[in-house]
Amino acid sequence: MDMQRRDLLKMITAATGLAMISAPSRAYVTLPMKTAEQTIFNKQQIAFIGEVAEVIVPKTDTPGAKAAGVGLSVAVLVSDCYSKAQQQHFMRGLADIEKRAQQTHGKPFVLLRADERLTLLSDLDEKAKVQNKMNGFTNEYINRPNDVMPHYFTMIKQITLFSFFTSEVGAKKVLRYVAVPGRYDGDYPYEKGDRAWAT
What we know:
Layout: H1 2-16, H2 43-56, H3 70-81, H4 84-105, H5 114-134, H6 152-165, H7 168-174
Helix pairs in contact: 1-6, 2-3, 3-6, 4-5, 4-6
């Protein structure tokens, strides 16, 4: 399990430019079964997280973030593993995404077309990279709750990727999964385009 998590974290680092922000989330072997009421989010906020996550990991020929229940997974991880300061920063980020949707398109994020959502979040992703670089965040970043936070979209993107690829859907339907890997095979056949392994 540890080796696979390490590979996942490398992938998240490559995708976001920062090492995974919340170390405690990596301690879970299985995510605790919780309801919305047991998190710091309400049901509407969790549904909103799911909509944002679906833009980051959309449904294609494989399931997307919503099919993996990423909204609730993210809510649990943020509630259990983020510091108070990180939680507040994350919440402000969700509110800012909604505000940007209203300012740019005059309607809520959930009513935006797929291309409008993608444009809005892609723009935020670029802004996040610039801001993180300006603030000196690197792959060596660790939890520093009292310091300047990385851009909120980086946090949202990281926790979304982590939640998705450690879910059953992400591991079995997007990656390839074997619960108990077998013998070492140094000459295993590989075809270009084969899915990566979750184990």
